[in-house]
Write the structure tokens for this entry.
Amino acid sequence: MNAVSPTLAPPPSTLRHAAWVLRENPLTAVAAAGATLLCLVALFSPWLVPYDPIASDVSVALQPPSAAHWAGTDQLGRDVLSRIIAATRLDLAIALSAVSLSFALGAVIGGVSGYAGGRLDRTVGRLVDVLMAFPLFVLAMALVAALGNRVENIVIATAIINLPFYIRFARAEVNVRRDAGYVEAARAGGEGHLAVVLRFLLPNVLPAMAVQISLNLGWAILNAAGLSFIGLGVRPPTPEWGILVAEGARFITTGKWWLVAFPGLALMLAVLCFNLLGDGLRDILDPRMRT
């Protein structure tokens, strides 16, 4: 009688593995729920604000949290909660635009240089090293100061300081895979070099880069808020988390704690959610975790 050889169970699907990761790591589930809530608040913020976030009413200035104003009012009588909700839309828009731009450019530049190798790869590597030699927030300050503190310039500056992360990641991963069997088969089938990079190499690198995207979203939000806090970002009276914290900081010594506490809490939770989500994405997308 022939012995039946044991068979290995197939690896779980991505959805099943994601559900398992969320069950085993509640913080990842909380982070995913928080990031989803932030996106929904940003999307529907014009309909969620209880008051006009810009209109002032000095008769109710500097009132503490109450039933009428859940997060209190600022020095001009503006509802703090309405301004926080409105700022969510702007901050997430800046972060998503900047990270999308740096991700697209970084993946292509890093993929092409890693595939080509040689002088091009060395040149791109040295340029990235020079860019990363500068303190990134100081570099963002210099770029915004030179270009002007408009929203589009904040997006450009944030994208530039995030660009080296994607270039280095894509360059290293493509460099390892450029001689793989499926790449040789694609070249033998008549695919051009650019098509090989875009159609065969980068799609295999993008899932791992998604972890970096989530981490960079938190950093991009913090960068935009930091620029606004020091006066180089979005201009008042536009609601933005950094501006709200900067305006509230002037009243800390007078006991008006809500002016800085609630915007600071919103900023902290947003960055924390995206950072924790990045750790969860790493567990979900790492094939070594699918056992």
User: Anything to note?
Assistant: The chain has a mean pLDDT of 84. The chain has one domain: 71-289. Residues 71-289 form a domain with the MetI-like fold fold (CATH 1.10.3720.10). The first helix runs from residue 14 to 24.
